[in-house]
Amino acid sequence: MRAFLRSLKFKVISAVLVILILLMIVSGAFGNNSSPLSSVASAIVTPVQQGFNSVCKYIGDIFSAPSKIRELELENATLREEIAALTEEKTEYETALIENEFYKDYLGLKEKHEDFEFCSAKVVSVDASDLYGAFTINVGSLNGITPYDPVITAEGLVGYVKSVSLTSATVITVLDPTVKVGAYDTRTDDNGISVGSAKLAKNDQCRLNNLTRDCTVAIGDSIVTSGGGGIFPEGLVIGTVKTMGQDKGDITSYAVIDTAVDFDDLRSVMIITSFEGQTNLK
Predict the structure, then answer these.
(1) Within 10 Å of residue 259's Cβ, how many Cβ atoms?
(2) What's residue 213's pLDDT?
(3) In sequence order, what are the beta bridge partners of 269?
(4) pLDDT tens digit string along 136-161?
(5) Please, how many CA atoms are within 13 Å of residue 220, restricted to the half-sphere of its CB?
(6) pLDDT confidence of 71, banded at 50, 70, 90?
(7) Residue 205 and residue 173: Cα distance in Å, rounded?
(8) Of 134, 148, 146, whose CA–CA distance to 232 is shortest?
(9) Who's near 83: CB < 8 A, 6+ residues apart?
(10) Entry pTM
(11) 3-state secondary structure the chain
(12) How much is the pLDDT for 252?
């Protein structure tokens, strides 16, 4: 403001105002006189008065502009806060819908296995260097998570907890060759060992080994966990048989399994923290 009062623009406006005021005084002096001089003065002063009013309005706008700008800024800030609040409410609502759907998917499993204790978790990061889809979840020992706890989705078996910190844990999947799962065909009761490989992992597949050569396992059969070993409870879906085969010179058969879980789209999982027959392998 001080800079404006010292500016040339302000000095010019002030000079114009002084001239306008003088002309108005002259007009007032001759306002009641019908002499030629009065008429001339009126003809000059009338448009000048109109200009004076415009100038006054302009000056008023100059001084009132900062307060109007401030009002607009406050109004915009209020609107931004309201938009942020509405966005947060929308996000919370959508999250609640997803979580409700997520938990609903496990009701049948919980009813079938009353001994299961669950802890839900979100996938926070995936190990890009791991060929088998290892990932980190947002729960840890503070949530009752321990190594070797089975990890599932509503679709089927994911893997198990490999390592745990206070607030997070690392999960390795059934695609990993180090994860060996006792399994059987629900139609034929043929037993085998599910194991992963680098080649099969690219297609979210694993292999059911140690099947007898005369087994009756067929394409499309459902493969589930057998419950042996104490790491996985019985009845968790691994996947369905894609193809059958025999290794050259081997006396056993194998089945390639399409896993039930889409490992490229894992966002939420459930950890089974306790079940009957669970072995403490820590």
Answers:
(1) 27
(2) 87
(3) 121
(4) 999 999 999 999 999 999 899 999 99
(5) 0
(6) confident
(7) 11
(8) 148
(9) none
(10) 0.64
(11) CHHHHCCHHHHHHHHHHHHHHHHHHHHHHCCCCCCHHHHHHHHHHHHHHHHHHHHHHHHHHHHHHHHHHHHHHHHHHHHHHHHHHHHHHHHHHHHHHHHHHHHHHHHHHHHHCCCCEEEEEEEEEECCCCCCCCEEECCCHHHCCCCCCEEECCCCEEEEEEEECCCCEEEEECCCCCCCEEEEECCCCCEEEEECCHHHHCCCEEEEEEEECCCCCCCCCEEEECCCCCCCCCCCEEEEEEEEEECCCCCEEEEEEEECCCHHHCCEEEEEEECCCCCCCC
(12) 87
Hey, which residues does 240 pair with through a beta bridge?
222, 258
- Which pLDDT score, from 0 to 100, does residue 173 have? 97
Helix axes 8-29, 36-112, angle to 10 degrees: 130
Residue with tokens 């050259």: 248
Residue 225 contacts residue 238 (beta carbons within 8 Å): yes
Side chain identity, residue 267: R
Mean pLDDT of the region 59-86: 73
AA letter at 200: L
97: its two tokens: 């819908």
Cα distance between residue 211 and residue 192, in whole Å: 5
Residue linked to tokens 């949530």 = 143
- pLDDT score at 228: 80
Q: Are 120 and 152 in contact (CB under 8 A)?
A: no
Reading the block at residue 132, the tokens are 């088998």
Q: Which amino acid is at 272?
A: I
Q: Which residue has the tokens 């190594």?
A: 147
CA distance 241 to 238: 10
- CA–CA gap between residue 276 and residue 96 (Å, rounded): 31
Q: What pLDDT, on the 0 to 100 scale, is given for residue 100?
A: 55
